[in-house]
Amino acid sequence: MPKLKTAGVRAEDPVDETVGTPVTRRRVYAYTLPGKDREKWTRTVGSSTERGVGLIKVGETTRSSVPARIKEQLGTAYPRLKGVAILLDEEAKRVDGTYFTDRSVHAALKAEGVRWDQEWFAATLDEVTAAIVAVRNRTAFSAQRTEDFPTRPEQMQAVELTAAYFTAKKAEDPHKAPKFLWNAKMRFGKTFTAYQLASQMDWRRVLVLTYKPAVQSAWRDDLLRHVDFADWKFIDRDTPPDEMDAAVDAPEPLVWFASFQDLAGRTAGGEIKRHNETIYLTDWDCIVLDEYHFGAWRDTARELYDPSDERLAEQEEPDESVTEDDLGLQAAHYLYLSGTPFRAITNGEFTEDQIFNWTYPQEQQAKADWDDSLSQNPYVDLPGMEMYSYEISESAMEWAQDGEFNTFSLSEYFKARKVNESRATGPGAYLFEDPTRVNEFLEMLRGKLAGQMKQQVLGAGKKAPFPYEAPDFKEAIRNSVWYMSDVASCYAMRDLLAVHAFFGKFELVVAAGAHAGQGAAAKPPVDNAIAGGEQSGKDGSITLSCGKLMTGVTVPEWGAILMLRSLQAPETYFQAAFRVQSPWRGKNPDGSVQVLKRTCYVFEFDPNRALALVAEYGMRLAVAGEMTPKDAIGQLIDYLPIYQFAGGAMTKLDAAELMDWATARVGATALAQRWNSSLLVEVNATTLAALLGQPDLLKALEQIEDFRNLANATQQIVTSTKALKKAKRDQGGLLTPAQSAEQRSNAKLRKEIREKLQKFVAKVPVFMYVTDFREEALKHVIESLDTSLFERVTGLTVGDFKLLNSIGVFSAQHMNAAIYQFKSFETASLHYADQDRGLGKLSKVGLWDRTEVVAQR
Questions:
Q1: 29 strand-pairing partners
Q2: Which has the higher per-residue pLDDT, 473 or 214?
Q3: Pairing mode, strands 330-331 and 283-284
Q4: How many contiguous H segments (helices) and E segments (strands) does the chain have?
Q5: What are the domain boundaries of the chain?
Q6: What is the DSSP letter of 513?
């Protein structure tokens, strides 16, 4: 991809090379010395005065070893270079393959008014780095632009697919704004790649909208630090209004970052805020909707938030999805970005040619397949992930069996309460309901329980690994996050850890409750605790959170997460788990990446819950990737190996075992509840609007008692929802009491329609049990092989069924999972007295919209 052209002084020195030629290999370096590193300096450029501390020597050598060259310079003054700080050591090679000398770097620094004396510069290391970047890329010097990393293959693929789609759709209809979705996991590099797309499309005006203002720094930094975007301007709400207007009128390209919350806000007089006026007056080349989880998992996303952040959760995870029509803005293209848009995909909001997918298995496969002989692996610092699942203890199981529901719950196991109001959050303010039980858990983390000590030896004399005992985990567990259920359990755990002989040696920080701050504001205390622990010689750090820092914020040092609460949805579970999969890297003196975290870990203590969620997450990946559930799960655990410790043995699960675990542990009651789940049917603005477009289907459905007056109810919901969205936008995000009542009425109507459709879905297991076509996809059986039986059991004609399916009423991903669990449970229940219906011998299992080949057992 061609780089953006820049104006201004070139960072090139016209002086001829003095040593060798442009093809002679060179390294450029920078260092400082005791005394030099404390020398103060002042610099005046134009009307600006800058002050700093430290002088830096910038040089180059044709030798392969920079330290050897520096030793020659310094002679005997610094034996073994003691006291010498080598700040930078990298290849002096341009993007065109030629080599440059230190004179080119000197020229770039001097052109910016940097004071110098015989190669010693009064500059910061960032400024020296920026000068080298400018020389390497033959671009204008900018002190901020210290990055010049290339586009990765999958990022280039996303750019090319999206650009081709936009170009084709604009050719078909220049007046219609096309939309595209990037279904890409965290660390894909969405900001950088979106900017590359903007450059490819030659866009000049890009608006980024998000419900998560904490991502602003990522959008700003990528634009202002990378050399590819040298001409671009970044605007946000803090930019002075006059500067905003000037930037929009100027010829240079710009990115404007805004949050939905701020954009919806109004002045006391009901007017658009002054700093947002220009947004509504601009014809945008593209509007980017970042963190597009709406329609994907908003029903459960609020689980990730600290209870004290309820208002923030409501702002960042709204009940209603956002469409182009809702924005009230003008744009030629729309780009949607999300890591978990599963429901948006199955709803039909985006067709297959409108989606680019990039998953964790794809990322790790690309990392494994990279040819290191070509260049440094761009995925090298993206750690692999492993999950270890433990049965918490025999006493815990006995405790669960004595409970009201006869099931194990981590949230109940670690339940705590406030016992001293006067102590606020100080020691003794909160207490676990059963501290003895929790202390037993802490001993289990170190493999110190009696039962573990007796049975933990595996094959070849190797011990079963426990989080704070196994050498393999030592580096990753040094900085960990413990994910608790509420604020009380966080503070109660802090107090237990603080007095524990082993865990008391860790730096403890509570990121929970109102005292910890909201969103990105909760991160500095954690950063300070980690740094403070290092400086004071602590064994590491433990962050206790019940939701803070679980979304939109990254703590690179975290290498492990302990799941100590109950989560219900795979999206929320993995959103939390992937917090620890963020890269943590340094830079070697030669410029190569120093990987500080190669593997990260998820430690799970409720196997039933965890393995079922992993299986379901794999099934949802199957929807995006057009694979069978088993294939998707197999691909997932190839790069997310799962180890289970139970009965004194640690075993690695394969895809079949994982699915067996996730289905065999489902009881008949739980299975029945699954077939009455609201997730199996989609009743939202998209499907209801599509239903209104099928008058014959509406008429047919109204012949069924449960669907009387369906057309009127559907029309009312669609019309009212659209009007309420507009009112909310015009009224600064607020609704009047009457409008709120109308919104509740719409929700009630939607619920009624969903419940009626669920009655139909609840009859599907009866049909599955009766039909003889067990190996075929259920849709195919219904539509072609056993139509009369289907109509007798459900009361719907096959034609009605086809239309309901075509408008996205049935959630394929959830139907596939429910059918697989039903058939697995049915197989186990019918396999008795050496009698079965041949189910155990089948090589193919029919799901909802596909079949899966299953190995015989």
A1: 59, 89
A2: 473
A3: parallel
A4: 34, 30
A5: 27-137, 153-358, 384-665, 682-759, 763-857
A6: S
Percent helix, strand and coil across the chain, each to the nearest 5: 45, 15, 35
Convert 716-750 to b/e letters by CB count within 10 Å (16 or more is b). bbbebbeebbeebbeebbeeeeebeebbeebeebb
Report the C-alpha gap between 614 and 643 in whole angstroms.
12
pLDDT of 778 strictly over 70: no
Euclidean distance between CA atoms 340 and 296, whole angstroms: 6
- pLDDT tens digit sequence for 610-622: 777 787 777 667 6
Determine the angle formed by the axes of helices 216-225 and 190-201, rounding to 10 degrees.
Answer: 50
Check pLDDT > 80 for residue 314: no
Confidence of residue 816 (pLDDT cuts 50, 70, 90): low
Q: What are phi and psi of 394, to 5 degrees?
A: -65, -40
Task: Tell whether the model's pLDDT for residue 311 goes beyond 80.
Answer: no
Write the DSSP string, 191-254.
HHHHHHHHHHHT-SEEEEEES-GGGHHHHHHHHHHBGGGTT-EEE-TTS-HHHHHHHHHSSS-E
What percentage of the chain carries pLDDT values higher than 90?
A: 21
pLDDT at residue 839, as a whole number: 39
Structure token pair of residue 1:
């991809």
What integer is the mean pLDDT of 165-182? 93
Q: What pLDDT is recorded for position 603?
A: 95
Per CATH, the number for 153-358 is: 3.40.50.300
Rounded CA-CA distance 309/519 in Å is 9
By CB neighbour count within 10 A (0-12 exposed, 13-18 middle, 19+ buried), where does 156 fall? middle
User: Which pLDDT value is given to residue 700?
Assistant: 75
